[in-house]
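Q: Given only this backbone (307 positions), what sequence would you predict?
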């Protein structure tokens, strides 16, 4: 038997992979430009395992859009989306979109010489959530995250919630507001950082009603508003429990959901720009109507070869 058939890493055995992170939300990147790999969920789990694998919150296959059905369908509407971010959660499940991951994805394309993207330029990337434009400015990348929505509509916004969440470590159930980007999110406001720290995200929360497709959970503490470069900017601190992963140091779509929920709770006159502080760093979220963008760093950390 060959090493590839006996190793738990399967088709990843002996391949040159890359690791990276966006505000410490970390990933294994698998270069597969022509889409020759048939990755299984078990192989993704093996690679992302922090004890017996490489260790990551998720896996990103770097593949041309034309090489997979989802990408081919997207190219019909977005012919500029040459590259597709095939993102998998650490449990092997597919995900629609990853705001931190797409920044790392584009950073890898640049560093590997697969695209020419000078400072100030942008690129369109395919994802299961649709095409996303990413622009580079220095060491930071801005992702046009697309259309956001609140599934509960105006009644949920007016009530301030549309789900009740019971979080281990907190004494009583909390009101949550659902946001989609298109990943499903539930945002819960807490009164202070002491309460935020008390939440036990190592154990599963419960939801009423139960989200049919699962949900990411963002626990947030609004920290007020300041003036930055002549505009009013809100600040919020966040912890996140990611669907299919567990607690992570950051979540790109989650930071957008957090900003959108706090903005809705703040009401008329709330800022459109938000600093979101996560355990892994800080990102900037900007809201423009039903569109939202995310700005933050991207870092490549190592070249690795599973055995």
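A: Predicted residues:
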């Amino acid at each position: 038997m060959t090493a590839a058939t006996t190793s738990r890493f399967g088709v990843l055995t002996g391949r040159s992979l890359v690791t990276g992170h966006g505000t410490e939300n970390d990933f294994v990147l698998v270069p597969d430009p022509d889409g020759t790999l048939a990755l299984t969920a078990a192989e993704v789990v093996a690679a992302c395992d922090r004890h017996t694998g490489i260790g990551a919150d998720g896996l990103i296959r770097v593949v041309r859009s034309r090489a997979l059905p989802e990408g081919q369908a997207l190219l019909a509407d977005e012919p500029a989306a040459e590259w597709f971010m095939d993102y998998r959660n650490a449990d092997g499940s597919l995900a629609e979109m990853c705001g931190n991951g797409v920044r790392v994805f584009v950073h890898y394309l640049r560093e590997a010489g697969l695209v020419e993207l000078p400072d100030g330029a942008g690129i369109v990337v395919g994802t299961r959530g649709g095409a996303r434009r990413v622009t580079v400015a220095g060491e930071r990348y801005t992702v046009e995250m697309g259309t956001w929505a609140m599934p509960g509509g105006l009644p949920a916004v007016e009530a301030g919630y549309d789900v009740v969440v019971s979080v281990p470590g907190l004494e009583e159930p909390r009101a949550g507001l659902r946001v989609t980007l298109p990943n499903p999110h539930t945002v819960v406001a807490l009164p202070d950082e002491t309460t935020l720290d008390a939440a036990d995200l190592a154990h599963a929360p419960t939801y009423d009603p139960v989200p049919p497709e699962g949900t990411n959970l963002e626990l947030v503490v609004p920290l007020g508003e300041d003036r930055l470069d002549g505009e009013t900017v809100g600040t919020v601190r966040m912890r996140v429990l990611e669907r299919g992963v567990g607690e992570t140091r950051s979540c790109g779509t989650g930071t957008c959901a957090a900003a959108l929920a706090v903005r809705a709770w703040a009401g008329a006159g709330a800022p459109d720009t938000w600093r979101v502080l996560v355990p892994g760093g800080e990102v900037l979220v900007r809201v423009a109507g039903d569109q939202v963008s995310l700005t933050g760093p991207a870092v490549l950390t190592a070249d690795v070869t599973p055995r």
